[in-house]
Amino acid sequence: MNPPPLHVVATGEVVARSDFEKLAVALLFAGGPGIALHLRDRRLDARSLHGLALRLGDTARSAGGWCVVNDRADIALTARAQALQLGAGALPVQAARRVLGSDVAVGASVHSPAEARSRANAGADYLIVGTVFPTPTHPGGPVGGTDLIEACARIGPPVIGIGGIDPGNTMEVLAAGAAGVAVVRAVWDHPSPVTATDELLSILAASASAG
After folding, report:
1. How far apart, in whole angstroms, are the C-alpha atoms of residue 70 and residue 82?
2. Full-model pTM
3. Would strands 180-183 and 6-11 be described as parallel, antiparallel, or unpaired?
4. What DSSP element (H or E) covers 62?
5. Contacts of 23 (CB under 8 A, 6+ apart)
6. Which residues neighbour 48 within 8 Å (Cβ) at sequence distance 6 or greater?
7. Do residues 79 and 70 lie in contact, with contact meaning Cβ atoms separated by under 8 Å?
8. Residue-wise pLDDT tens digits, 92-120
9. How far is CA 57 from CA 26, 41, 89, 120, 142, in A?
């Protein structure tokens, strides 16, 4: 199950924005099948997260893209999300698969080739790999650079690079073997998140047509 090439991650700070849901809907329709919107808000209670995932999952379905719930297999299942993203401390891939069946994609976040191989062997549909470049989202954390992308891309499942990625370095990440990129600030800190999304999708499309 191949993931969309652009993964836009909505952290708790982003979800708390008064205009978040309006923007999220606009991004999903702007991106269509090219975009996966991740709900990564660990502060929302289950009822609120479920309602948000249900609404945005329906929007994503209409637009052709993905709404991705992070860590919560129960909410991904009951809200009919298109994918579940498993981070550190979440369910093992095999357990999530037993809950979700084969209709919901299961992604895993990894930080090394060893982790990537383990999650791939467990049946992850795709891997989000980072941190690629320095980023304020994870200050002081290890940075693997494009060498990390290259090593993980050889393992099998599609690789999505994350960490400090913006329009200026997206092609570098793709050239290392990534199938796409995941971003936070490059979209949400932009004066127009829809414009930022369009720019990144244009870069991804140009890379796909060149390759």
Report:
1. 11
2. 0.96
3. parallel
4. helix 46-63
5. 17, 193, 194
6. none
7. no
8. 999 999 999 999 999 999 999 999 999 99
9. 13, 15, 24, 26, 33
